[in-house]
Amino acid sequence: MFIFDFFIKAGPIVMIPVIITIIGLVFRLPLTKAFKSGLIIGIGFAGINLVIGLLTSNLGPAAKAMVKNFGIKLDVLDVGWGSIAAVTWSSPIIPILIGTIFVANIILLILKATNTLDVDIWNYHHMAIVGVMTYFVTENILVSILAAASMAIITFKLSDWSQPLVSKYFGIPGVSLPTVSAMSSLIIAVPLNWLIDKIPGVNKINLDMKNAKKYLGFFGEPMIMGLLLGCAIGALAKYDLTRIFQVGVNMAAVMVLIPKMVALFMEGLMPISEAAKKLTSKKFKGRKFFIGLDAAVVVGNPEVITTALILIPLTILLAIVLPGNRLLPFADLAVIPFRVALVVALTNGNLFKNIIIGLGTMSAILLAGTATSPVLTALAKTVGINVAGGGLISSFASTSLTASFLVFKVFTSNLWITLPVFIVIFAVVWIYMDVIRPKKTHQSGDEVSL
């Protein structure tokens, strides 16, 4: 228990080097190489976090200023994912839920039901919060464990199915992203993408960022686009000229620095990846394992940042006009890059699709966040998180995420009806994705992709 508490308090920057070193040893790397790989990956992750900190520390205040300037009056306050994570880790049943998620991953690997080895233990809280909120509503520990286990199974399978996007679009082979806050968007994005592709004329629109670079020349460079979009957000925040350019230059820096940090990250990952391939080809007849990592490794992609910068003011406007929404976007506006990263990969960087689908995914988050805010607010009060005036709280995380919301509703509604329906639907999707679809793809000669 002491070791568990130590790593949770230390956070992912300490956990990742240790876990990667252990994985390297399991894959028969010498201790020195395994440790070096773990340390390099940890350094790369630290660098990514620093740049994301630069992103959020500039975008966060600017986004809040925009909210104030637009004069939005909504009664559910977005308090940010960090507050929700604090609620999750403060739960008395959290050790049980974290253990459940870890064991579920190991069992699925042994049964060959997943290829994702999720080493991103810190982000287990995205899965655990479903169990925590279920327990708060039902007061049934068994039901809450089943909810967390179901969330874990869905997460690992979606990670497997979306891994080709990570490999092909972001150029990170052997890695999947079991970060619920990023991956959950695909539940809305995949059908919306299919629908757009079926609309004549609309399906021909392709605002590709790579083409933008070619046509826009100087203004199509990632750093220049970061500068311009950052300055635009600063202007909407009604900053003075100095602060407008500060936001702009910092956004330009994000565009340049994140790819360099990811390159460092990949340097550390390659020895692990090669060792894994060698061992699995020998011991597991060529079976592939994906190392499950934080979606932070892809959110700095220029297309992702560009999409997010455009969506931030649009999300504020969306919150005003969306029927049924009461959630005021605030603290989590700065983490919209996480919510749209895999959407960008799904559309192959089509900015037109990114914005349309991004608004669809954000609509789902706003409505789910509104619907579950009473439960989340009551739960948060039990650990001392409250809002002045007794208002409701939510975020762009927890059960505001589509996958988490659906699982939470299954286990807090009429379980004898919702659970069988949930099992049947998920089983059909699983069979289609793992059995039927690969056969169709193999017969057609196409590459497997969402």
Automatic annotation (TrEMBL):
Protein location: Cell membrane
The answer on whether this UniProt entry bears the keyword Signal reads: no
State the membrane topology. Multi-pass membrane protein
InterPro entries, alphabetized = EIIC-GAT, PTS_EIIC_2, PTS_sugar-sp_permease
The record's listing under PROSITE patterns reads: PTS_EIIC_TYPE_2
Q: Which Pfam families match?
A: EIIC-GAT (PF03611)
TM ranges are 6-27, 39-59, 79-111, 132-156, 176-196, 216-237, 249-269, 289-322, 355-379, 385-408, 415-433
- Protein's UniProt keywords contain Transmembrane helix: yes
Give the UniProt keywords, A-Z: Cell membrane, Membrane, Phosphotransferase system, Sugar transport, Transmembrane, Transmembrane helix, Transport
**Protein name, UniProt field:** PTS galactitol transporter subunit IIC
Q: In what residue span(s) does the PTS EIIC type-2 domain sit? A: 4-435
